[in-house]
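To: structure subgroup
Subject: Chain for Friday's discussion

All,

I'm putting the inputs and outputs inline so they're searchable in the archive.
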Amino acid sequence: MKVLRILIADDHDLMRRGIKGMLESHAGWEICGEAHTGREAVSKAQELKPDIAILDISMPDLNGVDAARRIRKESPNTEILILSVHYSDQLIRDILEAGVRGYIVKSDSDRDLIVAVETLANHKPFLTPRATEVMLSSFKEGRMRTELPTALRDRLTTREREIVQLLAEGKSSKEVASSLNISVKTAETHRANIMRKLQLHTVSELVRYAVRNQIVEA
């Protein structure tokens, strides 16, 4: 029987160990890698090509949704399961748009985690009931994701969302540039464009925006 290889990414050690313990007790499953940040998760997925990647939604450096987008690109056969403390309709739409087919709320993980992984292992979707409702309502109303009203967050590119997260985490333009392998001038140009697009004037406003849109944790 083929071993199911799983990557776990969560910056909370206790949560990650708990998930690992639950999954390792299942016959035929192995944890092939662990990551603490979204960027590390992408790197390890690229290297290990796991069957399933389990990603926390709120991770340092790169959040779960943006990490999922990159993993889908680098390792298209990897199924992704997103774990979130809470949900919002916008978050669910972002997850579905990223090509993620697995999504559970952390409070339900004891009940849903094993079933979710089994379902994804068979390349079938496993979503919370609320996520299913949002998806069905979008189809019922004949609206694809791109036709939904454009929220401010959707005006940002993937790179700009990365920069918002790094700035909201307190990093300087120099640190942002180093983290993304771009010049300081490019980082500052991105920052200016972001502030203009979002009509923000201070870093504290940017932090509030990032928290409100679940790019970083409060």
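Points worth raising on Friday:
DSSP finds ten helices and six strands in the chain.
The chain has two domains: 4-140, 152-212.

D.
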